[in-house]
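Researcher: Here's my situation. A collaborator sent me these components and asked whether they could plausibly form a single complex. I don't have experimental data yet, so a predicted model of the whole assembly would be a useful starting point for our discussion.
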Amino acid sequence: MALKSKEIRVRMAPSPTGLLHFGNARTALFNYLFTKHSGGKLILRIEDTDIERSDKAFEKDIIDNLKWLGIIWDEGPFLQSERTSIYIKYLDKLVKDGLAYYCFCTQEELEGKKQEQMSRGVPAKYNGKCHNLSEEEIKKYLSQGKPSVIRFKIPEKKVSFNDIIRGKIEFESSLLGDFVIAKDLSTPLYNFALVVDDFEMKISHVIRGEDHIPNTPKQILLQEALNLPQPKYGHLPLILGPDKSKLSKRHGTQSIAEYRKQGYLAESVINFMAFLGWNPGTEKEIFSMDSLIKEFSLEKVQKSGAIFNIQRLDYLNGFYIRQKSIDELTELCQPYLPASPAGGPKIDKQKLQQIIAMHKERLKKLSEIKELTDFFFKQPQYSKELLRWKKADDEQIKQSLDILEKLLFKIKRWDKAEIENVLMVEAEQTGDRGILLWPFRVALSGKKASAGPFEIAEALGKEETLIRIKQAKELIL
RNA sequence: GGUCCCAUCGUCUAAUGGUUAGGACGCCACGCUUUCAAUGUGGCAACCGGGGUUCGACUCCCCGUGGGACCGCCA
């Protein structure tokens, strides 16, 4: 049965049994892009039928991070746990119609069967043992309180659907086995609740991970039994770990929250995720959410899985950081910096912006700002050897520091251009600028790699700069 | 084991029967530079294999092979 309405209605249906991770988030993004591109409505549905594993904290994490990413829905969030009365009607009908039945098999019994089937090389599926139970037997077992579940009676037929991304996919339903659709009359399970909800919410397109392909025939059969329309399906390729298996916890933390905490920008994560399985067909690689919406189409989605490549995310994040204004970037870096300098020079807002500005293009993620700029907030600690430029001896280093001290002391207008002017004249005369400039930079930063010494000196201020030169001299003695 | 899905540089990918197989990340070299970045230039690097179809296959078909997903009273 085809959907009557032309309206495009799409759902994101995460289950709150874990944090929002790259897999979920990418699926959510593609749902969002598809919906917005086609002017449809996006519905957020929380699939929390499993009360054991569902957690409000996860639900909150998913919602918060979806918002942070800029993936905004039009309706919901709807919680399946609050919709049981709706499912019950449909479940009831199915049982009354004889299309679903009680099963009293124990889990041990079932597990043994499955192992046996697999070792025999036949499809692992339920054998339909309880399908032939009589009314009396069922009543008896039920009144005895014997544990039971409700299974859907699979009709034997070919089930096929036309996947938007993959084309025709066909299954033989006899290989499926009667699956469990509810624990009891008031506790529906995933496959059942989903089919009812997709109908109730008038979902036109189901866009989800490839791992759901095997669920699709089950859901189609359920739709047919309930006489419900069939939405269109599109199965996205999986995001893979370095070992090419489905991305999961064993590949390390993949939660969006964790990346966010490390200082990845939402725009980088979005741009990155979009290209995991999709590309515009042009050589353009930098996309904002708006331009993604404009150019996205499911037809251009890849069929094969994409390995999660952190280096690319880092590159993108560095790129987006460099696009930020100093104002904005300073704001973003603030949480990663010490609240107040411990023993170092006073740092006001303008100074802070100066410091951020000189590290802008060295940043791959915001959290790195701490390590990069720590010497502004406290006296640097370093070994004497670090002051040595190439094969300079102690005497040479001392001489350089003396010259620096003398020249810097005389500077009236303390800004980086003036400092550079004064020092470069001297540095050029030595024939190797490093003789003067390397110890200068190390004395100020205590690092073997840092931003340029002139801008550091300017930000540090004349007094602090001279203090640090003196400290370097003490080290060399 | 069964079912299903997939297959271009290390990675993400372009190519829709005719290209020196293109771009990006990463890597290497060089330039700029006191260092590290950023940046510029250049380089290395791929059509899984075998059969067809065709004047011509990365592109279409078949068979292998390889990888993956699923086979829950999870979603």
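Model: Some features of this prediction you could bring to your collaborator: Chain A is about 45% helix and 10% strand. The first helix of chain A runs from residue 22 to 37.
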